[in-house]
Design goal:
By secondary structure, the protein is α/β, with parallel strands linked by helices. A 5-stranded parallel sheet has the order 4-7-10-1-11, covered by helices on one side. It is elongated.
């Protein structure tokens, strides 16, 4: 008989159903998935050898878990993915507020119903998607919200004394019995509210307004928090930390490839953008490197962290910058340019916390400089390193490009809204760029070559071989000294 067709306690007993705690559910299903070589935390990247094994060990140990890390490190996503380790359906006493197990009822309502109806007790089935509860810890959270309180309206309607436990209104935690319960940003929860969790975590009972209730709640708790020293808002009280079985440290991606995978997975782009806009692989690398530079910048508060959401929203802005240009020029297709990266500055300024020096510099300037630093860092992966000091007669790989700009009578300007044909024509005119790319990046496709040419120009600016001036409508490139010499 299908479980959906089982509707009474008697039928449930005949089916051979055996009660199982939620922690045993998670453990047994994890073991089964590991044996079958299944992907357990699908869509989470970069944690394969760090966080995920620790999380698996915590589940096997039947621990409540604290995921500790900076913002944008997939802490809540990991908690939600634990739902896949639950049984698809579990039986509950129909009408129960706290998901009573029909064979092990704990609430007065369920116990009395089973005593009254016996094997005819009606049951319903709870899908695993409904077995997840989440609460963001904020200073205004009360014990009544998460544990419960006496309900005077219920007492009046049922004509009950306040001494009767039927007047209790259960809070979020009892109502999430046999579920995964997540409290996000645990340090933000007031200390007195954290204290209310002690008994639930250790002894399994709850206390509401003097009622002595023994409710052995069956819960899997997952907490998320920023490292305590990184926040002025509060901390996790020591006795509560002592009751949490495993504390797992999360982290940001360690390499660009992993970061790119996350961004491409999470970025929301219109299908028309995907069809109309070509994004060179180097452009994706530069974008991720901007985020890596931000995490190490002296202008940005390292303790606050730089969320993975920055690269996701920046990528969406990058596509939109290219799309806007194409729409203005009435072009059906276009490719991302390095100058389009100016469009990601709003995504950066809203997601980083600046230190004092950064505030003095200005958020927009800090963001603009991060783009330059990203270009500079990646440049040496594609082309020879530029020596700071060289002998006067030595010929460098970039001398021809610098000479071309020195001999250029007219200013070389790349306007933001140039049509694709004009943009390509301007870059093709700098013939030494073709020679450099042919020598060091011979396998580069024609489609990617224009972004690479602009990339070289930006990098030469960062290495003080050329100068760059930003004006209202675009960017002007010059040799660093030529204009001064020619003006003498």
């Amino acid at each position: 008989m299908k479980i959906e067709n089982i509707t009474t306690l008697g039928e449930l007993k005949k089916s051979g159903y055996q009660p199982k705690s939620i922690k045993d559910e998670l453990r047994d299903n994890l073991i089964e998935k590991i044996k079958n070589k299944e992907t357990i935390f699908n869509g989470v990247h970069g944690y394969e050898n760090t966080v995920i094994p620790e999380l698996q060990r915590a589940i096997l140990s039947r621990h409540n878990i604290n995921l500790l890390g900076l913002r944008g490190q997939a802490k809540t996503r990991l908690a939600r993915l634990m739902l896949t380790l639950l049984d698809e359906y579990i039986p509950v006493v129909e009408g129960s507020e706290i998901n009573d197990d029909p064979l092990q009822p704990i609430s007065r309502y369920a116990i009395q119903l089973v005593e009254e109806k016996g094997d005819d007790t009606p049951i319903s089935w709870l899908h695993r998607s409904e077995r997840f509860a989440e609460k963001l810890a904020t200073p205004d959270v009360t014990v009544a919200d998460i544990i419960g309180d006496v309900d005077p309206i219920k007492a009046a309607n049922l004509k009950l004394s306040y001494a009767d436990d039927r007047v209790i209104h259960y809070g979020m935690i009892p109502r999430a019995n046999r579920c995964i319960f997540v409290i996000n940003e645990l340090p933000d929860l007031q200390a007195r509210i954290q204290v209310a969790l002690f008994n639930i975590l250790q002894e399994g009972d709850i206390q509401i307004r003097g009622f002595k209730l023994r409710l052995p709640l069956d819960m899997q708790f997952v907490f998320t928090a920023n490292p305590e020293d990184y926040t002025n808002r509060g901390s996790i009280v020591t006795p509560l930390k002592d009751r949490i079985g495993s504390q797992i440290l999360t982290h940001y991606p360690n390499d660009i490839e992993t970061a790119k995978t996350i961004t491409q997975q999470e970025a929301k782009s219109d299908i028309r953008q995907q069809d109309a806009i070509y994004v060179p692989e180097l452009a994706k690398d530069v974008l991720e490197q901007v985020v890596f530079e931000a995490r190490h910048s002296d202008f940005i508060d390292e303790k606050s962290g730089v969320s993975a959401r920055l690269s996701i929203t920046a990528y969406e802005n990058l596509l939109s910058a290219a799309e806007l240009r194409a729409l203005k020029n009435n072009e059906e297709k276009t490719a991302v340019r390095l100058s389009d990266f100016l469009g990601i500055i709003p995504a950066i300024t809203g997601k980083v916390e600046l230190v004092y020096e950064g505030e003095q510099e200005g958020a927009a300037n800090v963001a603009y400089n991060l783009i330059g630093e990203a270009v500079k860092t990646l440049f040496i992966q594609y082309f020879p390193e530029i020596e700071k000091l060289k002998k006067q007669d030595d010929v460098g790989p970039y001398d021809d490009i610098v000479s071309w700009f020195f001999n250029q009578s007219d200013s070389f300007e790349l306007l933001d809204d140039l049509r694709d044909k004009e943009y390509k024509s301007l870059l093709e005119a700098v013939s030494p760029l073709d020679d450099l790319i042919a020598k060091h990046q011979s396998n580069l496709s024609k489609e990617d070559s224009y972004f690479m040419k602009e990339f070289v120009l930006w990098a030469l600016v960062e290495y003080k071989q050329l100068s760059k001036y930003r004006f209202t409508k675009g960017i002007q490139f010059k040799d660093p000294y030529g204009s001064f010499i020619k003006g003498l």
